[in-house]
Every structure is written in structure tokens, then in C-alpha cells.
Amino acid sequence: MRRMHIHLIITAIGSILAAGLFAVPAQAAPVICGKVDSVGIQGDKYIVQNNIWGADTAQCIDVNQTAPGFTVTQAAHNKPTNGAPASYPSIFAGCHYALCTTGSGLPMRTNASGFGNLRTSVSMSYPSAGIWDAAYDLWFDPTPRTDGQNTGAEIMVWLNKQGSIQPVGSPVGTVSLAGGTWQVWFGNTGWNVISYVRTSATSSLDFAIDTFYADTVSRGYAQRSWYLTSVQAGFEPWVGGTGLAVNAFSYTTSGGGTDTTPPTTPSGLTASGTTSSGTNLSWTAATDSGGSGLAGYDIMRATGTGAFATVGTSTTTSYADSGLTPSTTYRYQVRARDGANNVSQPSGTVSVTTLSGGGGGGCSAVATVQNAWGNGYVVQPVTVTNTGTAAKSGWTVTFTLPAGHTVTGSWNASLTVSGQTVTARNLAHNGTLSPGGSTTFGFQASRPDGNTQVPSGYGCA
């Protein structure tokens, strides 16, 4: 069963690229062996990642910058087939854990005019030995996410498989798409995982992204307001894997061109209704002339004189920020984003100081481990309940991570980590709880392989 990819730490060359300092000239095809090594190719049009996220065994890939693609030249994996695979060596376009390729136009909203023009193709070679699948991985998020874990949907398109392995979840039907017949599987690992397993194996595929996404939406597993963030093709090996190869990969925006024009800057930002734990923002709408359409707004917040950070998004010209600290000064800016992920200049700044006192009501937090595997787990739901007699506006849950554990994604809460202490704060939509009312959030974490500990000491305020 497949879980999220480990956070990629790019190699020395890739780090410079990700920082946007300068472009690296073409070089000889590298061989990368580090667990989280990745390299940009063809002027950063694509990124190839080794991505050993589920094991500590050796794996090396020979990167082909011309095709583009890669070959697994060494793989010593031997994972049980009833658990997660060892890795996902792959090539991708778009944004994945703070690594973004150039010219992809991603993230792109799936109801944008250009989304129907997005196509991808792949040609693969398979060895006769080992246990593995050959699959696309298409990632979707409710927000135009460029880093961190996607929380919307993960579509896997299995071209081929060898051995007694199966996707996450259970089969829910069959469908004819992209020139083949596919068995459809559905599961949830903190986000929806929809897998399309071809009933007759193929070594190549060429399709429009919306071919599979439209089917996923029709089944109720995704929404047209979500964003495509990356298009990836590669392999999930459980046993062996040497000889697996992507001979050629492409991602194109044919027919619609690429929108490179940012929206206009939002104006007239104001704040009103400030309480001890929240405030309401409003502004004048931006406009977009680039063709991909206005997708929404990023809300950026700074505490005191600190740096601005994005704390939420909105598809309207208003936003309710909550979970703030009493008697604290905050500054806000808003920027517009279009369907091709072009962003405007930040708006003017508005400052607010929250009132003294709390939001009222007591609080409890109860956590359930939904799923766990060798080196990770999903905690969902964490149920937050107002145990007091007054309405509560804003809540904070703290808990302790065992040593060596790392939070890799979260949903329905904003998480910050200091040492082993994690602080979860409500989002705008779930901060107000009536007496006896409750809401939920969840998170995913990684841990040393074989460690069975989970977080403890959940406290709520």
C-alpha cells in the first residue's frame, strides 16, 4: 500500500535551482543514489527523484536528460507485499514538496480553461524479476499548494504490475478510459487515493489529465474547485526493481498555451470585527487578463514585525482569520492568484491588535490512529470538543511527538512544531464551537522503520 512520499531534500545543484538563484547549464546524465536525491533536467522542465521513502535499502537511478527519463540501475529492496513499497523513483512536472519545475503552469485549478489541454505521455521498460508496479501519480489539492502534503486526491494510474500487490483500499468498479479497461480502487490515507489498474498491461500511455480526473470527480472523490499540483510517472518496487526504466516522459499544455500574466493587485484591504482570537478581512477584487482566470487569493499574516507567511486562501473577497492570541498585534496582506499559479504583488498592509481575554468554553481533544505502517501513520480524527457552557471562538491543541518522528502533512488545522511539541490551531472554518460542539482535524507523520510509538499527551485550550 502506498503512502505519501518523504519530503524531498534536493541535491546541492537542485537546492540552488529551487531557491531560484540561477539556472544550471546542461551536464552529463548523473547517477543518483541518495534516499531523497533529485535533479532538474532540460532547464528544470522536469525533475527526476530517487525518492526512497519506505525503506533503508540501496537504490540508484541513471538519469537520462535527453529522453527524458531514468533507469533503476541498483535496487536491493525486499519489502513485504502486504505493506507499503520501498520507494517511488519517478520523473515529474509541477510542484512537489517545495520543488517546482519551470513552465508547467502548475498548480492549475481543474475548472480553469487550460486544464482540459494538459496532456502527458510515458514509455516504460520492465524487468522480468522483482515485485513492483509502474504507475502515474497525479496529485490534487483544495489549494494552489506548492509545498507540503496534498490533502485532496491522489490519482494513481497503474500501467503494469508484477507480483501479489494491490492499491490502497478496495475495488469500486471498472471503466474504459484512454484506450484501455481499468479496475478502479478507492482508499483514504488522510486524502483520497483513487487507483486505476489496467486490466491488460501496457508499456506506454498518452492521455489528457482530465480523462482520469473527470471520472474521479464523477465518483465523488474529488472536486472541480481543486488544483492539479504535479504529474509524476515512475515505479513502486517492493522487491528488487533493477531494470525498471522510464524511456521517455512528456507533459504538455498543448492547445491553450501557457499563461504568464499575473492578476492585478488586490486593493482596499480592511479588517473588522476583531476579537480576542480572530478578525475579519475584506478587500476589492483583483482582475486577470492572462486567460487562465482568477483562481483566488492568498492571505498572508505576520506577527508583530515578523515576516509574512501564507495562513489561508479564499475564493471570495473576504476571509475570517481565527485561532489568534489575545492582546497581540498582527499584520495582513492579500495577493491574487490565477489558474496558472501566477501571483500578483501583495496588497497594502492592515494591522490589528486582538482583544484581551479568551474565547470562552472549556476544551478536550481525543485522537484516533486511523492507519499505521512500518515508518509512518495517520492520526484521524482528532476530535476537538467545547466542554464549557459558553461558545468558544478559537482552539489550540498541543501534543508530543516521540523522538525521531516528523509531521509530514495535516488537514483541517494549522500545525507548527517546536522540538517534539506540536501545536495545532483551528482554521477559519472550524474555529467557533458552540457548547458541546465539536470539530475534527488530522495529520500524518513519519517515524523510524519498526518504531511503533504514536503521539501522546493531547491537551486543548
From TrEMBL:
Coiled coil: none
Residue ranges annotated for the CBM2 domain, each copy included: 356-461
Domain Fibronectin type-III: 265-357
Pfam families referenced in this protein's UniProt entry, alphabetically: CBM_2 (PF00553), fn3 (PF00041), Glyco_hydro_12 (PF01670)
Listed Polar residues bias regions: 438-455
Classification via InterPro entries: CBD2, FN3_dom, GH12
Keywords assigned by UniProt, alphabetized: Signal
Leader peptide range in chain numbering: 1-28
Tree of life domain: Bacteria
Signal found in the keyword field: yes
CDD domains, per database record: FN3
Biased composition (Low complexity): 259-276
Region (Disordered): 256-276, 438-461
Protein name: Cellulose binding domain-containing protein
